[in-house]
Amino acid sequence: MKNFDVVAKFPEVSAAVVSDSSGAILEWSGDIDGEAAGAVHSFSMQSLAQAGELLGLGGLERASIVGPTKACVIAVQGDEVLGVYSLPGKAFSAVEKKLDVALRH
Amino acid sequence: MDAILQTLQDMEGVNGAVIADRTGQVLAYRAHALYDSALLSQVSKAVVTAIDSVKLMQQDWESVTVQFAEGKLLIRSLASGTQGKTPELTLSVIADMRLNVSFAGVALRVAVAKLKAIFEAGNGMPDFSGGIAPVIKSPLPPPAAVPPSSRMGVAATSPMAQRGSNPEFSASNLNWSGFGGNSSLSGSGIAALDAASSAALAACTKALARSVGPMAKRYVKESLGRICPDRPFSKEMVPALVVELEKYLEDPAHADEFRKVAMKAR
To answer: Do B46 and A47 touch (CB under 8 A)?
Structure first.
């Protein structure tokens, strides 16, 4: 992923992981088990893509997962799956906005 | 509980609201007729698989918001802090592109709070603690929010207009994007021979969507599996595809209208 370094260096980001659609880890940074996270991201995206297909909602673009202590956005980029972690709240909103811009370029 | 789901359902862009348990069994729902209980059950199972996976990284998840090319799926955990009293249930809202995400966020927070209160009081689903029995609500008729004539060039008195198909979906580009794809057919498992064939396929899907809404893509995919399982779709196959797709339309008037529009794609 060409913009991975940019995304991983956002000040709000605590960890970032890129995997392929089969779950194999490609790149990661931050305090995270990259291999486990990559596999989880790809697998969960496949299941959500299946749900979207059943519902006729088109291709899966991204999923945001929020909890009380951390938040994660997982974005599908071609054959790659990018997962980015941050604190929930304002920090996560900022990450989502910045990621949106970064992935467009 | 039905009133809570109905409130969600009444929001513009919402096509369904579903409560499911941790096995994916649908406990209650309000949805447009195109989403029947069998389909929602399949969807819930896929959602549960995804959530189970997510929990490996984020056990205390509260919300999952999934963005698709043509809609959104908003999932909220109904589990409360007081474990043991509230079962692991999820509330999912299926929405198209018209959804106002900010309003939906507020409505969902209200709905989740009310549902948790019901469950914690133990009077919402008396049987969920010992084997959950389905409490499935009858689906609503298809939406008729915007007259199709104003969005799709269809006469308001036509059968399609009377039926009230999903205008937003019908007006979308139906690009057949799928997991890992943005605008091509590759990600959807559908292959077209060339650009003209791809355009013809999209036109047929769009024509069918006027009658069946978002399910059109699924029906097209199934039909292609029958007429060209081992080769790419080509424009010459449009008549065969139209014949197959007509089988999904029970109303002869809809089938006739679909045939007229779809055959122009040749």
So the answer is: yes
List the domains of chain A with CATH numbers.
4-104 (3.30.450.30)
**Beta-carbon count within 10 A of A84 CB:** 29
Choose from A40, A57, A61 for mutation: most chain B CBs within 10 A: A57
CA atoms within 13 A of residue A28's CA, in its CB half-sphere: 22
Rounded CA-CA distance A33/A41 in Å is 12
Residue type at B61 in one-letter notation = W
What is the value of ipTM here, to two decimals? Answer: 0.95
User: Of B139, B131, B138, B137, whose CA–CA distance to B22 is shortest?
Assistant: B131
> Per residue in A27-77, pLDDT tens?
999 989 999 999 999 999 999 999 999 999 999 999 999 999 999 999 999
Q: What's the farthest any 2 CA atoms get from each other in chain B?
A: 62
pLDDT digits (tens, 9 = 90+) for B155-181: 333 333 333 333 333 333 444 544 434
